[in-house]
Each structure stands twice: as C-alpha cells, then as structure tokens.
UniProtKB/TrEMBL annotation, chain A:
It holds the Pfam family SBP_bac_1. It comes from the Bacteria. Coiled coil: none annotated. It is found in: Periplasm. Residues 1-36 form the signal peptide. InterPro entries: Bact_solute-bd_prot1, SBP, TAT_signal. The keyword Signal applies. Keywords: Cell membrane, Lipoprotein, Membrane, Palmitate, Signal. This is Extracellular solute-binding protein. Its main location: periplasm. Belongs to the bacterial solute-binding protein 1 family. It comes from Dongia sedimenti.
Automatic annotation (TrEMBL), chain B:
Belongs to the binding-protein-dependent transport system permease family. It is found in: Cell membrane. Residues 64-280 form the ABC transmembrane type-1 domain. It comes from Dongia sedimenti. SUPFAM superfamilies: MetI-like. Gene3D superfamilies: MetI-like. Keywords: Cell membrane, Membrane, Transmembrane, Transmembrane helix, Transport. InterPro entries: MetI-like (IPR000515), MetI-like_sf (IPR035906), UgpAE/MalFG_permease (IPR050809). This is Sugar ABC transporter permease. It holds the Pfam family BPD_transp_1.
Automatic annotation (TrEMBL), chain C:
PANTHER family: ABC TRANSPORTER PERMEASE PROTEIN MG189-RELATED-RELATED (PTHR43744), SN-GLYCEROL-3-PHOSPHATE TRANSPORT SYSTEM PERMEASE PROTEIN UGPE (PTHR43744:SF8). The gene is ugpE. Its main location: membrane. InterPro entries: MetI-like (IPR000515), MetI-like_sf (IPR035906). It comes from Dongia sedimenti. It is a multi-pass membrane protein. The keyword Transmembrane helix applies. Belongs to the binding-protein-dependent transport system permease family. The keyword Cell membrane applies. This is sn-glycerol-3-phosphate transport system permease protein UgpE.
Length: 443, 293, 290
C-alpha cells in the first residue's frame, strides 16, 4: 500500500468520524482510545464446543496479576478472517486462539504469528502437546490449550441387542461390515450421525485419509499437485463411505440432521456407531451409564498411519502485533501451571492439553481408557487439518454430503476434490510454495 | 442572497452526503480496486483481470449464478397466487378484513425465524413428511432439505410463501383504488366474474404487477442470503445445491480470506443491480403517474 | 360474488340471498386455504413449543396432549435471548435515530431549498435503494478491521443507518413535497428560520410518514442477518437473528426447545403487528417500493 492511499483512507475516516460525532459520542470509537501499556487482548474460541470454557477464561484472567488480559470470545465463522484482517491492519490481539494445521499455518506464512520457541519455556511448550502440525521451518507456533481426541464411538446397549460383543468394537473394515449387517438385520441403524452442516464428512475423511498416507506431508502433497485425488489410493475414504451408503448402513435422517444432534442419536440408542470427539465423552458416558465406547475407525487401508488413534489439540499463540511478546508468553506459561490446568478441568469437565496433568481426577472408566489410548499412547495428528479453506468449503464438505445422499460415487468425489484442489492453486498462487515447503517439513 | 443562505442547503445535506459516501460511495469505489488485486488481509499486488478470469472459469461460481436465476421461476407463481388471493379479497367476502391481516403475517416474521421453523418442518422425519405419510402420499415424503435435488426448491417454496404475502397486500391496495364504475359497467353488460377479472381488472393492474415483478427479480438475485444461510446449513448445502451469489461473496471474504475474489463478484453483482435500476425507475414513474392521474 | 363491492358501497341494502352460491363457497375455500398456509408455520411453532421432547418424537403434527412450559423457562432464563434482543434493539434504535435525523435534514433541503446538485443527490440516493448490501461488505469489513470498528455498536449502527437512509430520503422527500407551499410562506412571514420550520411545522405534520419510516427501518435492522454475522463477531454483541441462527442448530434434536425460542424471538414483532397493523401494512408496502 502506498502512502497516498493510506492518507486518503485516513481522511475518509476523519470525515466519517466527524459524521458519527453528531449522533454518537466521539469517545465511543475504540480505535481512538489509547490502550494501557500493560493491557493485553486475547481473542479466543471454544465455548461453542466446550461449554464452561468462558467461566475458566474469566477466572484465569481475574487471577493473573502480571498484566490485565482482556478476552473476547470470537464467533465460529470468523475466527480466522477476523484475526488475519486485523493482523494485516496491525491491530491483531496480543494472544490469539489458533486451530491446528493450516488453520493457523496460513497466518504463520503471512507473518502474523510469532514462533513460540524461545519465548515460552521449552518443557512447557512440549508438555502442552501442540502436535506436529504446529511446526514449520523448525519452529513451533502454537501452545496446546485443550485436547481433541478424534474418536469413533459405539453404543454398547445396541451392540448387545444385536448379539455383538459390547466390549470389543470392530477393528478391521470386514469386521465392521459384518457388525453393520448384524445391527441392520436386528432393525437398527448401524452407522452414521448428521451431515446437514457438512462437518461429519470432514471427520470421516480425516479418519479415512490417515489410512491412505504414510505421513501428513503426503496429505499436503495432494494440494501442491504432486499427488492427486483422482488416484484411487487417495479417494478411498469416499469410496468406503459410498459402500456404507449402498449397503443401507447409514441412518436415513442423516442428510437433514446436523453434526452434534447426529452424535446425540448414538447416545440416545438410535444409531449404533459413528464419529465423535473426545471432549464429548465425559458427558455422553455419564448420560448412558458408561454404555458409550470409544473406537478407532475400522481399518481398510495399509498406510503407516492406519489404525492409530488420532489426537488433535486446540491451541493459542502470540501475534506479531503483541506489544510485549515476553509478557504474552508469561501469560501462556501461567495457563500451563498446575492450578490453571486443574481449574480448566473443574470448569469444563474436560482435560487441559498437558501431558503432565494428573489424570487421577477423572472418575469415569470409559474416559480414562479413552485418554490412555488417545492422549498418552502412540497417536497421530489429524490430517484433515492440512486442507486449504477453499478446498474444505467447496470440495470436502459437499463431497461428503453428496456421497451420503447417494448423489455421487466415491470416484466422482475424488474428481471433484482434484478439480477444486487445482482451483485452489490458481486462486492462491502465493500459498502453494508454502505448502510445498510444509510438505517437506511434515515428511 | 447572502453567503450564508447560499451555503445553508449544503449544510443540511452534508450529513446525508457523508453517510451515503461512507456506506455506499467508499465501498463501491473500493470493490473495483480490490477486484484487480490479489489481496491477503488488507492489500496485495495488482493482478489485472486475473480474479475475473478465475471466477469465470469456476464451476461453483456459475452454479451460484444458476441458482439465483432458477429462483426467478418463483416469480410467476408468486404473481399468480398473489393475484388470485388479492382479487378474491377484493370481492369483500365475509371476513376479508381479518383474512387480509392474517395473510400478511408471513411478511412480518423475520426470515431467519421462519427459515429455522421451515427447516424443522421439512426434516426427513419432520411434521410435513409425517402428515404426507398419514395422508398416504408417501411418494411425496421427500428428503426436502437433505437432498440436493430438492433443497433449492424447498428454499424457493419458503421464498414464495413469504414474498407472496407482500404481493397480495400490494395488489389489494391497488384494487381498492380502482375505479369501480368500470367493473359496474361490465357487470351491466352481462360479463361474468372471469370476464371482468380478465378484461377489466387485470389490464388496470398491469403497472403494479410489473412493479412487483421487478422488485421480486431484485430480491431473487440479491436478497436471499438469510433464507439460504439458515436452510442450507450456512454453506449452501447439501453439496453446493443452495449456493447463491451472496453466499459465494460471504464465503470468499469470511471463510476463504479472498477479499479480491469477493470484490470481483461484488462488482458483477453491482453491475447487474445497476441494470435493474433502469426498469425500476421507469416502473416507479409510471406507478406514480397512474396514482396521480 | 361479483356484486359484493356494490353491496359494500350501499351498505344499507342486504345482499340478495341468491348470490350465496357455489362460487362464493369456492372463493371462501380458496381464501381459507390461503389463510391456513400463511399461518401453518406459526401454528406449528406454537404447538411444538408446548410439547415435551418425548411427545414431539411421536406426535409431530397433532395438538399437544399436555401443555409443557419448561422450554420457555429454559429459553428465557438459561439462554441469552434477552441479551440478544437488547443488542438488536440498540442497533435498530441507534440506526433509526441516526438515519432519521440525517434524512430529515437532507430531505428538507432537497424538497424545499434550491441548490446545485439537488436533483442528482435525490436520484443517486433513490438509485442506491436497489444496490444489494452484500456488495458493500468487503471494503467495509477491511476498513473496520483496520480501524477497530468490528464488533462495536457504533460501527454496525453506522452501516445500518447508511443502508436504510436512501429509502428514508425517498419517502421523506416525496412527503415533504406534498406539504402546501402556503404553510412555509406563512411561517417565514412570522420570521421562522428553516430549522424552526422543519422542527415545529414539517415534522409534526409528517408524523405518519415518520412512523412508516420507523416501522420499515426498525424491522429491517431487527431482521437482518448478513451485516450482523459479519460485523458483530463478539459473542456479547450478537443480535437476535445471529443468535437464533446458532441456537436453531445447537438444539436441533430438541425441536420443542428451538420452537420456544422462535416464539420468544417472534413475539415482539407479532405483538407490535397486532397493535399497529395499519402502520405495518402501509409501511412495508412503502418499503417494497425501494
């Protein structure tokens, strides 16, 4: 941007400010208010998926003595665009909530987010489990905040009714199909949930693609053009979904039901198996008296990642506009101190993202066994986190919905995915080089 | 005239001009600039017509345009239904005043509210299908919002339901202003109800019908966001079956962080609405002439 | 029933009985169908809101067997509906006041004063009525992010006020033009200045037009979703429409609860409509003229 356009924009603002001053108090324009030096802003998200987090944030902020932190809960739709636009304008908050993978990597490449190594103590950063997808060019850009084990769940009552072993979820695809068949002939919906809002399809793809790639880097190469979704090896998840649809294993109301109400169907005993997320486990397990079990997606693929539990974390980072990055880092470290970790558990009923957290506070056996496998055992990152936003919107979500509705085949979903991946390269030439480098980093 | 009184009118319009320049003027100039840039965040390099090239080459964009155009199909239905009901109300049968108040209710309810209600009603296991199954019309119990074959039509149904309420009241107002001596004369000549509607009433309604048609075209092309946002799960689903131009712009700026692309589409939508302003102005002038005549 | 208008005109004469024939019955049926269609969603909403979750699973269409008011409790006391409504009311109030003030001054000048650019200003302002709001959001979003106006009432009010102003100018200018010239001349003879004339004479006479304006504009802001979700991203600033778009998704399998929310959300407008239906009908018809 040149100086002159900058100037004219400022003048335009002055004009509109003069205009606003007539009807509104001039002091109401926050941009003109000077901010106190020791004040930090924090834009965060998560109350939407983890009720209680708001109470935790409010209390932590109140407890913190070294600086005043002003939190603002963001709306789901705009978490990234709001941050990026503010950062481009030099107005980013000191501390920003960051989803994993590409959801913050794009901001990293644009220089909006600072590397945390060197700012936050190494051991604290590691213990927070930011996962592999927070790394770029040897630096780590996020600190873990709370974990998201990506799980499948099944209803043990329904398994019992269909004559299946409630303590042993199917592990291979063939065993899974056999179980579905049994459930179906017993008059139950074997698998599904709700895909009206599309996210179910993302999860299915995320679980499925892990079985098709040997590393997250290979998943990234699907977008740089080095690999293609036209290749049956990579559109296999949709082919498997088509298989379930054709066999009549998906619940019939799936297309007009949204994601979370769809998971509730499993809890309510109306669908036997489906995708869920670890943070729901405590509540769902309690509601059913322990009749919800966690499982890994049944294995159809032969890749190195196949069959391993998927572990993701929500995180936070420090923006380039932080007035005092060290002070912001001190606040992040404060969040990882044992008292604050305990507080997060108390307020939300869920776990903080920290592998030194004393898990003996968890009472529920189902949650403990899930946590042992997903949180503490050998896990893999969630590869659906590397997909570009445009591809996510225009290929990933529609493809899942259309396969579930029986409108397109798995192979056609692959063709759509390949086409939109190419469009993404055309629309975002500046991002492609970063993706190529990232693919190498992720192996 | 002295200096101050010559300046006075400008003082009166200054706030108005400033407000319009801020909310309309600045953005309308800026979308042109942005549409020629590859923008990340707030600015980026000039790239000529590349953004336009990209959207013109993209199936999804054309699909969005096609969906907006398909919504135009609703307009004849809206007009026919509104005319029928308005003319029947004009007959002033028993209770017509109460009917008129009730029939306008759809237009009072906010779009997000009725869209949310309709979405529940049209669920696969929702009340509409329950009622259809109960009536024995199982073949009609479609997956109204879950199937990409029907979702846009379901949205259209909702749009017709709401926008026709406006048509009815608009047409009725015109009817109540008609010169009744013409209908009376026709009646004396022995014309039956249909003949009077067809030869006497409808010709006098031409301007208001055209007017309603033009504003409905503007609605279908550029004000269906709230309907689609709620009914299509926020993304124009299922698949991309309810993607429309407004949602495309929304997605490009809010979800894909591509302000340049969003601006290029905004420019196109702006040009289309400019084209529509011409008939709208002509229509309004004729409507005014008719009223004053 | 073709002679009905005549019968209404000559109210003293009873309509001849022979005319209550088959076509009247048919017409009544069509009208009743239209009334039914217009009311179905509202009836469904209210009936469902009064059902328990369990009852809804097996009784989706019929009347509730036992009335359950729990959902209203949840909506009113456990969800932020009041806060959302308050936000919507602040925005609608602020935008209507700002736009009305600016438009009254402007329309008065356009209708009653001679100055260069008067016709252009009026035509340009009228033309803006046909420009869809979505066209303006990209630059405003970028600008607001730069100057920190995202998620502020002031910022959103400014945009809303701008969007509704062309219609206000159109309506007020045409109305001001219909006021008799003598009125102004007499006032001027008494030594009143323009502002005094506007304030003391024109505005009181324009009350019907102003009321129409308030109805149309307040309803526009109250019902808007697009601007609300883009420019008010702070949870605490969420408007009613943005709020229910989230609410309806979050409780999708507690449909009676969602419907209770919709009842609460639509109640203010329905009550106002019943009380002031004349202004609503007149206002929204005028609003359609945009």
């Amino acid at each position: 941007m040149t100086k002159t356009t900058d100037l004219s924009r400022r003048r335009l603002m002055q004009a509109s400010a003069a205009l606003g001053a007539g009807a509104l108090a001039g002091s109401a324009f926050p941009a003109w208010r000077a901010r106190a030096a020791e004040e930090m802003t924090m834009w965060w998200w998560g109350e939407q998926e983890l009720p209680g987090l708001q109470g935790y944030v409010d209390e932590v902020v109140k407890k913190y003595g070294a600086a005043t932190v002003k939190p603002m809960l963001q709306d789901t739709a705009v978490v990234i665009s709001q941050f990026q636009t503010a950062a481009a304008a030099g107005n980013a908050p000191d501390i920003q909530f960051l989803w994993n993978g590409i959801y913050h990597m794009e901001s990293v490449w644009l220089g909006y987010v600072q590397a945390l190594d060197g700012l936050v103590k190494d051991d604290v950063l590691k213990a927070s489990q930011p996962t592999l997808l927070s790394n770029y060019d040897g630096h780590t850009y996020r600190m873990g905040w709370y974990p998201l084990p990506m799980i499948w769940i099944y209803n043990k009552d329904m398994f019992e009714k269909a004559g299946l072993d409630p303590e042993k979820a199917p592990e291979t695809w063939d065993a899974f199909l056999a179980a579905c068949e049994k459930l179906k002939s017993a008059g139950m919906s074997p698998v599904g949930g709700g895909i009206q809002d599309g996210y179910w399809g993302e999860w299915f793809f995320g679980h499925g693609l892990a079985q098709c790639v040997d590393s997250p880097g290979q998943a990234v190469e699907l977008f740089t053009g080095e690999r293609s979704f036209e290749d049956p090896a990579y559109h296999a998840p949709w082919v498997k979904l088509e298989e379930l649809k054709k066999a009549g294993f998906l619940n019939p109301e799936m297309s007009s039901t949204e994601l979370y109400p769809g998971i509730d169907l499993i809890v309510a005993g109306k669908v036997a198996m489906g995708e869920s997320i670890g943070s729901r486990m405590p509540a769902d397990s309690k509601k059913t008296n322990g009749k919800i079990g966690a499982m890994v997606m049944p294995v159809f693929g032969k890749s190195k990642l196949a069959g391993k539990p998927i572990f993701d974390t929500q995180g936070i980072g420090i923006s380039k506009d932080a007035k005092d990055p060290k002070a912001a880092a001190a606040f992040l470290e404060f969040l990882q101190a044992p008292e604050q970790l305990k507080l997060l558990h108390e307020k939300t009923g869920w776990l903080p993202s920290n592998n030194t957290f004393d898990t003996s506070v968890i009472q529920d056996a189902a949650v403990v066994s899930m946590w042992k496998r997903w949180g503490q055992g050998e896990n893999i990152p969630y590869v659906a986190n590397v997909v570009p936003g445009q591809w996510y919107e225009q290929a990933l979500l529609p493809a899942g919905q259309q396969v579930v509705a029986g409108k397109i085949t798995g192979a056609e979903a692959g063709a759509l995915a390949a086409k939109v991946a190419k469009e993404w390269r055309d629309f975002n030439p500046d991002m492609v080089d970063h993706y190529k480098k990232w693919a190498k980093d992720l192996g | 005239m002295d200096q101050t009184s010559r300046l006075k009118p400008y003082l009166y319009v200054a706030p108005l001009v400033a407000l319009l320049l801020f909310v309309f003027g600045y953005p309308l100039v800026q979308i042109f600039e942005y549409s020629f840039k590859q923008i990340r965040g707030i600015d980026g390099p000039w790239i000529g017509f590349r953004n336009y090239e990209l959207i013109f080459g993209q199936d999804l964009f054309w699909e969005a345009v096609r969906h907006n155009l398909m919504l135009l199909i609703a307009i004849p239905i809206m007009i026919a239904w509104s005319l029928l009901v308005a003319i029947l109300l004009y007959d002033r049968l028993k209770g017509w005043k109460v009917y008129r108040i009730v029939i306008f209710v759809p237009y009072i309810l906010a779009v997000p509210i009725i869209a949310a209600i309709m979405k529940k009603m049209f669920q696969f296991n929702g009340p509409v299908n329950e009622a259809l199954r109960w009536l024995g019309a199982d073949f009609l119990a479609l997956d109204w919002i879950g199937s990409s074959d029907y979702a846009l039509w379901t949205v259209m149904l909702l749009i017709i339901w709401r926008e026709a309420a406006l048509g009815i009241v608009l047409f009725l107002a015109r009817l109540l202003n008609l010169d009744e001596s013409l209908t009376e004369a026709a009646k004396l000549d022995g014309a039956n109800w249909w003949q009077r509607v067809w030869y006497v009433i409808l010709p006098q309604m031409r301007v208001v019908i055209e007017f309603y048609a033009v504003i409905s075209v503007i609605t279908m092309l550029s004000s269906v966001f709230a309907y689609v946002y709620i009914m299509g799960g926020g993304r124009g689903g299922p698949g991309t079956s309810t993607m429309v131009v407004e949602l495309y712009i929304f997605g490009a700026i809010v979800r894909q962080s591509l302000p340049g692309i969003a601006s290029a589409v905004s420019v196109l939508l702006f040009l289309v609405s400019l084209l529509l302003i011409v008939p709208l102005f002509a229509m309004r002038r004729r409507a005014n002439e008719e009223e004053t005549a | 029933m073709s002679t009905a208008p005549q019968a209404a005109a000559k109210a003293t004469l009873p309509p001849p009985p022979a005319l209550v024939g088959i076509d009247t019955v048919l017409k009544q049926i069509v009208l009743l169908v239209a009334v039914f269609i217009a009311l179905v969603p509202t009836i469904f909403m209210i009936m469902t809101a009064l059902k328990s979750d369990d009852e809804y699973t097996f009784n989706k269409v019929g009347f509730p067997h036992a009335l359950v008011f729990d959902h209203f409790d949840v909506v009113l006391f456990e969800s932020p509906f009041f806060a959302w409504m308050l936000n919507s009311a602040i925005l609608a109030g602020g935008a209507v006041v700002l736009s009305s003030a600016v438009s009254c001054l402007g329309a008065y000048a356009i209708a009653r004063m001679q100055f260069k650019g008067r016709h252009f200003l009026f035509s340009a302002s009228v033309a803006l009525m046909a420009i869809p709001p979505v066209v303006m959001i990209v630059p405003l979003f970028v600008l607001y992010s730069r100057i920190g106006l995202i998620s502020t009432y002031e910022g959103a009010i400014l945009i809303y006020a701008g969007l509704i102003t062309p219609f206000s100018v159109y309506l007020l200018t045409t109305f001001f033009r219909t006021l008799p010239k003598e009125l102004f001349e007499a006032a001027r003879m008494d030594g009143a200045g323009d502002f005094l004339i506007l304030w003391r004479i024109v505005l009181p006479l324009s009350l019907p037009a102003l009321l129409t304006l308030v109805v149309v504009n307040a309803l526009y802001v109250w019902n808007d979703l697009l601007i609300a979700i883009i420019f008010l991203q702070d949870d605490a600033k969420r408007t009613l429409m943005a709020g229910i778009s989230v609410f309806q998704g979050r409780y999708e399998n507690q449909i009676p609860l969602v419907m209770a929310g919709m009842v609460i959300a639509s109640a203010p407008m329905i009550i106002l409509y019943i009380a002031f239906q004349k202004y609503f009908i007149r206002g929204l018809m005028a609003g359609a003229i945009k």
